[in-house]
Amino acid sequence: MAATINQARTSISKMFNGEPRSYTRFNLAQNSDADSSQVEMKLSTDVDDEVGNPEDGQARVTYTQSPLRTYKNICYLALGTLVVFILGYLVGYVSHRKPDVASTSCLTASTVPTVPTVPSKEDQDEGLAVEALPSLSWNDITNLLEQKLSSSAFSTRFSDFSLPRGVGHEAGSDGDIELANKVLGVFKDLNMKSWNDKHIVKLPRPSSDNPNKVLFGTEEIGTPKGYLAYSEVGNATGRVVYANYGELDNLSYFDKKIDLKSSVLLLRAGKISFAEKVANAAKYGAVAVLIYPDPDDHNFVGSTELYGHVHLGSGDPYTPGFPSFEHTQFPPAKSSGLPTILAQTITADMALKIFQKMGGDLAPKNFKGNLVTTYKLGSADNMVTVTVSSTLAEADIHNIFGVIKGSEESDRYVVIGAQRDSWGPGVAKSTVGTTLLVELASAISEMVRKDHLSLRRSLVFASWSAGEYGSVGATEWQEGYLSSLNMRAFTYINLDGVVVGRTKFKASASPLLYDLLKNTLMQVKSPFHAGKTLLDDYTTSRDWETPVLEAMKMDDAAYPFMALSGIPSISFRFCEDKEYPYFGTSLDSLDHLVVSTSSKHAEFAVAAANVAGQMALRLAHDHLLPLDVARSGAEIRKKVIEVNRHVNQFKSTLGLNSTLAQVLSVQWLNSAIGTYGRAARDLQNTIDNSDLEDKEMCRIINDRIIKVEHNLLSPYVSVRDAPFRHILFGSGSHTMEALLDHLNALKQSAPESDEDLFRNQFAWATWTIQSCANDLFGPIWAMDNEI
Question: Last residue of a domain, which of 567, 598, 621?
């Protein structure tokens, strides 16, 4: 600023006299010349400050002033001074005027941060403030999103991502790669930072030389084209037994009735995943499993083939616990979730042939399906032979990513993902989700570019491959970047299968997201009833959670994010009472989706996009993350109460007859959940009594919130042996559910029970909860050390 004014003064001075009239300092000395009044001026320099005045003999700058100054020059001088003053005032005002920026609140987050204009290099050097664009309220944001997500736009985009009839897009195929390039092209057109993450995985394919077969005695039942990936290969013969859906309750029916060892179980598809059916059958000693679609659950032609996988886990089972990157040193390892028995799907027509040949007792009433036959359990001489042949082949799969970066905490991000591959057309399974993914990316990108939307945190859009094989692409990505995702990826929103019906809305999620989901349902317009919100559809129930929420299943694409990586996750869908019957078949087509939604698939897709978009924007927009740690604590408390009840029953049943009953105490487990409750209240107290417009304070509070889900991953088991380490939602001996099961086994003196192992499990659960509570308190000096 000073330099600008001096330059103006110098220019004006030169206009009138050719020399500057202003000096920093000067010394005056009278000259003895009688003809004129001469003033000698000695320039003062910066060096004078250090070494003093110059000695005699140094160069001097002088000028001569005439004693007779004209009135004209005086007027020029006055005018020049006035111009300098006005010019300096205007420059100073423009340079130093601060923008009027509305204050924001961390708690309410009713406005988004403004987008500053980019300062010039000179402005940056001067440290000047920049003019801000108008801010958007949260209502502005939701209204903009709603305007940009239209059914017509969805239909157009849907056509772009639908491959021609007969062109498959199984993982690693040409069709899969074609779709990957389309998604990548959209991200690039939107000027998003985008990239391709390639993995080399082993995928099983049916053998063309040795087709899979099923024999009843010596008679061939059929050679099914459908298959179950990761099944054991070979031949197995055994007594065929019909066991309904293959749930543990179904199999326990045969206790003391039929020995299931060395049997071939005939099971209906549905209720639980293929992998869980096969794992349950293996527990009971079966040698093979045949799975068919019963007309009671799958109302389609009897020749329809089923496809799926039977890996009780996710990701490439031949690289358990580590990623399948190109330069990975692949050891000879296998996932513990791979089945040890044969598994094969058959058509309903093939199952009917088997039923018609079976003898034995009638099946119980709750086992009966809708085949036109008598449902029997099978007799001892009903022998079935199963042959499964497949080959493992390496395949390149590609995960495609695009990111909209945040303005303040770009290193924190929400991941929104959708499966891209499928067996068959996969319209409901993958095409709808992929379409929603790119539509959301397009809408939010436009809001940032044109509508001045500024997000604090980033949004990562991910298109996964090999989802049909058990979330292989998504899991391999997580395994490759586990340390990078910790404390950075704080929520995953899954878009797979979001539109499969027209009467209900269902969701499965981490408890941390329950409150956010409820608030979102309060704002999204219902596609069921005009003029209502989605939450209004459940006002007849006191508890909205009961009709909406359900447990997250292992075959849910969001499951590994929560149980493997400790990232709060959510899946949701518009659906019917019964499961969508066409997944994993050649019938997952647009025609069947149109029928299932009464031709309103585009409207339901828009509603689904609004649910996902509003949740993502709220997570990226608010000062404080809208994750409810108290709600998560309530779920932990429910499990602790259940453990307390079982321990009390165990003690009352065995009493002095059991050493374990005498020493077993729930004191420390109760103390751990008590510590969590105090930590949650302390966090709320910190929020209530802090300056929440302080960015650093908000980040410290958010750090405490982000860690909760991750800290519920048990540190006492390895990722390789037990990848799903979450003590509430995972699987393995470290979980609260395994603790309860083991307690019941001890109560019944079951041979597989082990007191020492149980006490270790009890300690693992206690200290996992306690450690989570300690970290929720924040700094090490704030932790509750009473335990």
Answer: 621
